[in-house]
Amino acid sequence: MKKENPKNKQTPVVHQHSIDRVFQYIDDHLDRDLSLNTIAEVAFYSPFHFHRIFKVITQETLNAYITRRRVEKAAADLLHKKASITEIFQTYGFNDNATFTRTFKKYYGVSPTEFRKLNPNKFSKIYQLKSKNGQEYPSYEKYICTINNLKNWTKMNANIEVKDLTELKGASSTQIGVDGVEHAFEKLLVWANKNRLFENPETKMGRVFHDSFKITEPEKVRMSICVLTNEVFEVENEITAVTIKKGTYIVGRFEIVPEDFEKSWSGLFIWMNENGYKKRAENPFEIYHNDFRQHPQNKCIVDMCIPVV
Protein backbone atom coordinates (compact mmCIF):
# COMPACT_ATOMS: atom_id res chain seq x y z
CA MET A 1 0.00 0.00 0.00
CA LYS A 2 1.39 3.37 -1.06
CA LYS A 3 2.09 5.72 1.82
CA GLU A 4 0.57 9.17 1.69
CA ASN A 5 3.10 11.98 1.41
CA PRO A 6 2.57 14.28 4.43
CA LYS A 7 3.38 17.27 2.23
CA ASN A 8 0.32 16.50 0.13
CA LYS A 9 -2.11 16.35 3.04
CA GLN A 10 -4.60 19.18 3.08
CA THR A 11 -5.42 21.02 6.29
CA PRO A 12 -9.05 20.37 7.27
CA VAL A 13 -11.31 23.15 5.98
CA VAL A 14 -12.71 23.71 9.47
CA HIS A 15 -9.58 25.79 10.20
CA GLN A 16 -10.64 28.50 7.72
CA HIS A 17 -12.84 30.22 10.32
CA SER A 18 -9.85 30.80 12.56
CA ILE A 19 -7.60 31.88 9.70
CA ASP A 20 -10.17 34.43 8.50
CA ARG A 21 -10.20 35.90 12.01
CA VAL A 22 -6.40 36.06 11.92
CA PHE A 23 -6.37 37.85 8.55
CA GLN A 24 -8.60 40.58 9.94
CA TYR A 25 -6.64 40.88 13.19
CA ILE A 26 -3.35 41.29 11.33
CA ASP A 27 -4.73 43.98 9.02
CA ASP A 28 -6.13 45.87 12.03
CA HIS A 29 -2.87 45.73 14.02
CA LEU A 30 -0.03 46.17 11.51
CA ASP A 31 1.47 48.91 13.67
CA ARG A 32 1.94 46.51 16.61
CA ASP A 33 4.23 43.63 17.52
CA LEU A 34 2.52 40.66 15.89
CA SER A 35 4.28 37.73 17.50
CA LEU A 36 3.48 34.10 16.77
CA ASN A 37 2.16 33.64 20.30
CA THR A 38 -0.19 36.63 19.97
CA ILE A 39 -1.61 35.51 16.63
CA ALA A 40 -1.95 31.90 17.76
CA GLU A 41 -4.08 33.09 20.69
CA VAL A 42 -6.35 34.94 18.24
CA ALA A 43 -6.80 31.69 16.31
CA PHE A 44 -7.24 29.61 19.51
CA TYR A 45 -4.40 27.22 18.59
CA SER A 46 -1.03 26.40 20.04
CA PRO A 47 1.80 28.33 18.33
CA PHE A 48 3.21 25.16 16.76
CA HIS A 49 -0.14 23.93 15.45
CA PHE A 50 -1.19 27.38 14.22
CA HIS A 51 2.05 28.01 12.32
CA ARG A 52 1.68 24.72 10.45
CA ILE A 53 -1.93 25.41 9.52
CA PHE A 54 -1.24 28.98 8.46
CA LYS A 55 1.58 27.96 6.11
CA VAL A 56 -0.53 25.24 4.48
CA ILE A 57 -3.38 27.67 3.79
CA THR A 58 -1.35 30.72 2.71
CA GLN A 59 1.84 29.07 1.40
CA GLU A 60 3.74 31.63 3.51
CA THR A 61 5.20 31.68 6.98
CA LEU A 62 3.46 34.02 9.41
CA ASN A 63 6.39 36.46 9.46
CA ALA A 64 6.59 36.54 5.65
CA TYR A 65 2.86 37.20 5.39
CA ILE A 66 2.95 40.03 7.97
CA THR A 67 5.92 41.71 6.29
CA ARG A 68 4.24 41.49 2.88
CA ARG A 69 1.01 42.97 4.21
CA ARG A 70 2.91 45.86 5.80
CA VAL A 71 4.76 46.64 2.58
CA GLU A 72 1.65 46.34 0.41
CA LYS A 73 -0.41 48.56 2.70
CA ALA A 74 2.42 51.10 2.63
CA ALA A 75 2.51 50.90 -1.18
CA ALA A 76 -1.23 51.58 -1.34
CA ASP A 77 -0.81 54.64 0.89
CA LEU A 78 2.05 55.91 -1.28
CA LEU A 79 -0.27 55.68 -4.28
CA HIS A 80 -3.42 57.13 -2.79
CA LYS A 81 -2.53 59.30 0.21
CA LYS A 82 -0.52 62.47 0.76
CA ALA A 83 0.95 61.25 4.05
CA SER A 84 4.72 61.58 4.48
CA ILE A 85 6.90 58.51 4.16
CA THR A 86 7.68 58.78 7.87
CA GLU A 87 3.98 58.69 8.74
CA ILE A 88 3.48 55.71 6.45
CA PHE A 89 6.28 53.51 7.77
CA GLN A 90 5.31 54.26 11.36
CA THR A 91 1.68 53.38 10.58
CA TYR A 92 2.71 49.91 9.46
CA GLY A 93 5.11 48.94 12.18
CA PHE A 94 8.55 49.74 10.70
CA ASN A 95 11.07 51.03 13.22
CA ASP A 96 12.93 53.44 10.96
CA ASN A 97 13.14 54.72 7.40
CA ALA A 98 16.24 52.65 6.53
CA THR A 99 14.51 49.38 7.44
CA PHE A 100 11.36 50.40 5.61
CA THR A 101 13.23 51.43 2.45
CA ARG A 102 15.34 48.25 2.39
CA THR A 103 12.29 46.02 2.83
CA PHE A 104 10.21 47.97 0.33
CA LYS A 105 12.89 47.68 -2.38
CA LYS A 106 12.92 43.90 -2.01
CA TYR A 107 9.28 43.86 -3.10
CA TYR A 108 9.07 46.61 -5.71
CA GLY A 109 12.65 47.15 -6.88
CA VAL A 110 12.61 50.88 -6.09
CA SER A 111 12.62 53.03 -2.96
CA PRO A 112 9.33 54.33 -1.54
CA THR A 113 10.16 57.83 -2.84
CA GLU A 114 10.83 56.54 -6.36
CA PHE A 115 7.72 54.39 -6.24
CA ARG A 116 5.55 57.39 -5.46
CA LYS A 117 7.09 59.43 -8.30
CA LEU A 118 6.75 56.61 -10.84
CA ASN A 119 3.09 56.00 -10.06
CA PRO A 120 0.98 59.16 -10.52
CA ASN A 121 -1.59 59.05 -7.74
CA LYS A 122 -4.76 59.57 -9.68
CA PHE A 123 -4.00 56.93 -12.32
CA SER A 124 -2.10 54.41 -10.21
CA LYS A 125 -4.50 51.55 -10.91
CA ILE A 126 -3.49 51.34 -14.56
CA TYR A 127 0.16 50.61 -13.81
CA GLN A 128 1.85 47.23 -13.82
CA LEU A 129 4.71 47.31 -11.32
CA LYS A 130 8.06 46.53 -12.90
CA SER A 131 9.10 44.23 -10.08
CA LYS A 132 5.98 42.10 -10.61
CA ASN A 133 6.23 41.37 -14.32
CA GLY A 134 9.54 42.73 -15.60
CA GLN A 135 7.99 45.44 -17.76
CA GLU A 136 9.25 48.99 -17.89
CA TYR A 137 6.95 51.84 -16.97
CA PRO A 138 5.33 53.31 -20.11
CA SER A 139 6.42 56.62 -21.59
CA TYR A 140 4.29 59.63 -20.75
CA GLU A 141 2.80 59.75 -24.27
CA LYS A 142 1.96 56.05 -24.29
CA TYR A 143 0.58 56.33 -20.79
CA ILE A 144 -1.78 59.18 -21.71
CA CYS A 145 -2.90 57.31 -24.83
CA THR A 146 -3.65 54.21 -22.75
CA ILE A 147 -5.63 56.25 -20.23
CA ASN A 148 -7.67 57.99 -22.91
CA ASN A 149 -8.45 54.71 -24.66
CA LEU A 150 -9.53 53.15 -21.38
CA LYS A 151 -11.73 56.12 -20.50
CA ASN A 152 -13.47 55.88 -23.87
CA TRP A 153 -13.90 52.11 -23.50
CA THR A 154 -15.38 52.54 -20.02
CA LYS A 155 -17.80 55.20 -21.22
CA MET A 156 -19.06 52.83 -23.92
CA ASN A 157 -19.31 49.72 -21.74
CA ALA A 158 -20.43 50.92 -18.32
CA ASN A 159 -23.28 52.72 -16.63
CA ILE A 160 -21.68 54.42 -13.60
CA GLU A 161 -23.59 55.87 -10.65
CA VAL A 162 -22.81 56.94 -7.10
CA LYS A 163 -25.24 55.21 -4.73
CA ASP A 164 -25.95 54.76 -1.04
CA LEU A 165 -26.12 50.99 -0.61
CA THR A 166 -27.77 49.24 2.30
CA GLU A 167 -25.91 46.62 4.31
CA LEU A 168 -25.41 43.36 2.45
CA LYS A 169 -25.17 40.01 4.20
CA GLY A 170 -24.51 36.48 3.10
CA ALA A 171 -22.13 33.55 3.14
CA SER A 172 -18.54 33.47 1.91
CA SER A 173 -15.61 31.19 1.26
CA THR A 174 -12.02 32.43 1.29
CA GLN A 175 -9.96 32.04 -1.87
CA ILE A 176 -6.25 32.86 -2.04
CA GLY A 177 -4.82 33.37 -5.53
CA VAL A 178 -6.37 33.23 -8.97
CA ASP A 179 -5.79 29.51 -9.45
CA GLY A 180 -8.91 27.65 -8.42
CA VAL A 181 -11.29 30.64 -8.48
CA GLU A 182 -13.73 28.86 -10.80
CA HIS A 183 -13.76 25.84 -8.50
CA ALA A 184 -14.39 28.10 -5.49
CA PHE A 185 -17.43 29.62 -7.20
CA GLU A 186 -18.77 26.22 -8.21
CA LYS A 187 -18.32 24.84 -4.71
CA LEU A 188 -20.22 27.75 -3.16
CA LEU A 189 -22.96 27.44 -5.78
CA VAL A 190 -23.44 23.78 -4.89
CA TRP A 191 -23.68 24.70 -1.20
CA ALA A 192 -26.16 27.54 -1.91
CA ASN A 193 -28.36 25.33 -4.09
CA LYS A 194 -28.32 22.63 -1.44
CA ASN A 195 -29.58 25.22 1.02
CA ARG A 196 -32.15 26.48 -1.53
CA LEU A 197 -30.85 30.05 -1.25
CA PHE A 198 -31.46 30.82 -4.93
CA GLU A 199 -35.18 30.22 -4.54
CA ASN A 200 -35.11 33.85 -3.42
CA PRO A 201 -34.67 35.92 -6.63
CA GLU A 202 -32.79 38.60 -4.66
CA THR A 203 -29.94 36.18 -3.89
CA LYS A 204 -26.79 37.01 -5.89
CA MET A 205 -23.26 35.72 -6.22
CA GLY A 206 -20.45 38.17 -5.42
CA ARG A 207 -16.78 38.59 -4.71
CA VAL A 208 -14.94 40.84 -2.24
CA PHE A 209 -11.31 41.81 -2.87
CA HIS A 210 -9.08 42.12 0.19
CA ASP A 211 -6.03 42.89 -1.97
CA SER A 212 -5.32 44.82 -5.16
CA PHE A 213 -3.94 42.99 -8.20
CA LYS A 214 -1.85 46.09 -8.92
CA ILE A 215 0.03 45.70 -5.64
CA THR A 216 -0.25 42.04 -4.67
CA GLU A 217 0.97 39.13 -6.77
CA PRO A 218 -1.98 37.25 -8.34
CA GLU A 219 -1.21 34.00 -6.52
CA LYS A 220 -1.44 35.82 -3.16
CA VAL A 221 -4.50 38.00 -3.69
CA ARG A 222 -7.13 37.16 -1.09
CA MET A 223 -10.80 37.13 -2.08
CA SER A 224 -14.09 36.24 -0.44
CA ILE A 225 -16.36 34.37 -2.84
CA CYS A 226 -19.88 35.21 -1.68
CA VAL A 227 -23.55 34.36 -1.84
CA LEU A 228 -25.34 37.60 -0.93
CA THR A 229 -28.73 36.77 0.55
CA ASN A 230 -31.23 37.71 3.24
CA GLU A 231 -32.14 34.06 3.69
CA VAL A 232 -31.22 32.29 6.94
CA PHE A 233 -28.47 29.68 6.64
CA GLU A 234 -26.12 27.71 8.85
CA VAL A 235 -22.37 28.09 8.42
CA GLU A 236 -20.46 24.86 7.90
CA ASN A 237 -16.86 23.88 7.32
CA GLU A 238 -15.19 26.67 5.34
CA ILE A 239 -18.42 28.66 4.77
CA THR A 240 -18.56 31.77 6.97
CA ALA A 241 -20.92 34.70 7.37
CA VAL A 242 -20.02 37.93 5.57
CA THR A 243 -21.26 41.51 5.94
CA ILE A 244 -20.66 44.37 3.52
CA LYS A 245 -21.21 47.68 5.29
CA LYS A 246 -23.78 50.18 4.13
CA GLY A 247 -22.42 53.40 2.70
CA THR A 248 -21.69 55.40 -0.42
CA TYR A 249 -20.33 53.45 -3.38
CA ILE A 250 -19.40 54.06 -6.97
CA VAL A 251 -21.34 51.35 -8.80
CA GLY A 252 -20.37 50.51 -12.37
CA ARG A 253 -22.75 48.20 -14.23
CA PHE A 254 -20.80 46.33 -16.93
CA GLU A 255 -21.80 43.72 -19.50
CA ILE A 256 -18.45 42.20 -20.38
CA VAL A 257 -16.59 39.00 -21.18
CA PRO A 258 -14.50 37.58 -18.30
CA GLU A 259 -11.27 38.79 -19.93
CA ASP A 260 -12.36 42.42 -19.51
CA PHE A 261 -12.70 42.43 -15.72
CA GLU A 262 -9.28 43.99 -15.08
CA LYS A 263 -9.88 46.65 -17.72
CA SER A 264 -13.26 47.45 -16.17
CA TRP A 265 -11.85 47.88 -12.67
CA SER A 266 -9.05 50.11 -13.98
CA GLY A 267 -11.54 52.29 -15.82
CA LEU A 268 -13.76 52.55 -12.76
CA PHE A 269 -10.89 53.71 -10.55
CA ILE A 270 -9.94 56.33 -13.14
CA TRP A 271 -13.55 57.55 -13.14
CA MET A 272 -13.41 57.72 -9.33
CA ASN A 273 -10.33 59.93 -9.31
CA GLU A 274 -11.41 62.18 -12.16
CA ASN A 275 -14.70 62.86 -10.38
CA GLY A 276 -13.04 63.80 -7.10
CA TYR A 277 -13.93 60.78 -4.96
CA LYS A 278 -11.63 59.08 -2.46
CA LYS A 279 -11.72 55.38 -1.68
CA ARG A 280 -12.75 54.40 1.85
CA ALA A 281 -10.89 51.73 3.81
CA GLU A 282 -13.50 49.08 3.03
CA ASN A 283 -12.90 46.59 0.23
CA PRO A 284 -14.21 46.81 -3.37
CA PHE A 285 -16.59 44.06 -4.42
CA GLU A 286 -18.54 42.62 -7.35
CA ILE A 287 -22.18 41.52 -7.59
CA TYR A 288 -23.14 39.19 -10.44
CA HIS A 289 -26.57 39.37 -12.08
CA ASN A 290 -26.33 36.40 -14.41
CA ASP A 291 -24.48 33.21 -15.26
CA PHE A 292 -22.24 34.26 -18.15
CA ARG A 293 -22.34 30.70 -19.50
CA GLN A 294 -26.03 31.21 -20.26
CA HIS A 295 -25.49 34.56 -21.99
CA PRO A 296 -25.61 34.37 -25.82
CA GLN A 297 -22.23 36.14 -25.99
CA ASN A 298 -20.81 34.62 -22.79
CA LYS A 299 -20.92 38.00 -21.09
CA CYS A 300 -21.14 38.77 -17.38
CA ILE A 301 -23.63 41.36 -16.15
CA VAL A 302 -21.83 42.64 -13.09
CA ASP A 303 -21.85 45.57 -10.68
CA MET A 304 -18.37 46.66 -9.63
CA CYS A 305 -18.53 48.65 -6.40
CA ILE A 306 -15.93 50.97 -4.84
CA PRO A 307 -16.58 52.39 -1.33
CA VAL A 308 -15.95 56.15 -1.44
CA VAL A 309 -16.25 59.41 0.46
Strand order of the largest sheet: 1-6-8-7-3-4-2-5
Shape designation: globular
Broad CATH class of the largest domain: Alpha Beta
Count of strand segments: 8
CATH superfamily of the largest domain: Regulatory factor, effector binding domain
Q: State the end-to-end CA separation.
A: 62 Å
Low-confidence stretches: 1-14, 121-135
Question: SSE order in H/E notation?
Answer: HHHHHHHHHEEHEEEEHEE
CATH architecture of the largest domain: Alpha-Beta Barrel
Q: Helicity, in percent?
A: 40-55%
As a whole number of angstroms, the C-alpha radius of gyration is 20 Å
CATH fold annotation of the largest domain: Multidrug-efflux Transporter 1 Regulator Bmrr, Chain A
Please summarize the sheet with the most strands: 8 strands, antiparallel
Number of domains: 2
* Tally of helical runs: 11
Strand content: 15-25%
Secondary structural class: alpha+beta
What would a concise description of this structure say?
The chain has 309 residues and is α+β, with helices and mostly antiparallel strands. It has helices at residues 16-28, 36-43, 47-58, 62-80, 85-91, 97-108, 112-118, 130-133, 140-157, 181-194, 261-274; strands at 158-165, 168-176, 204-209, 222-228, 240-244, 247-256, 285-288, 300-307.
Write up what this structure looks like:
- This protein has 309 residues and is of the alpha+beta class.
- The chain folds into two domains: 1-118, Arc Repressor Mutant, subunit A, CATH 1.10.10.60; 160-307, Regulatory factor, effector binding domain (Multidrug-efflux Transporter 1 Regulator Bmrr, Chain A).
- It is built from eleven helices and eight strands.
- The protein has helices at residues 16-28, 36-43, 47-58, 62-80, 85-91, 97-108, 112-118, 130-133, 140-157, 181-194, 261-274, and strands spanning 158-165, 168-176, 204-209, 222-228, 240-244, 247-256, 285-288, 300-307.
- The chain has an eight-stranded antiparallel β-sheet with strand order 1-6-8-7-3-4-2-5, with helices on both faces.
- α1 (16-28) crosses α2 and α4 crosses α6 (97-108).
- The longest helix has 19 residues, at 62-80.
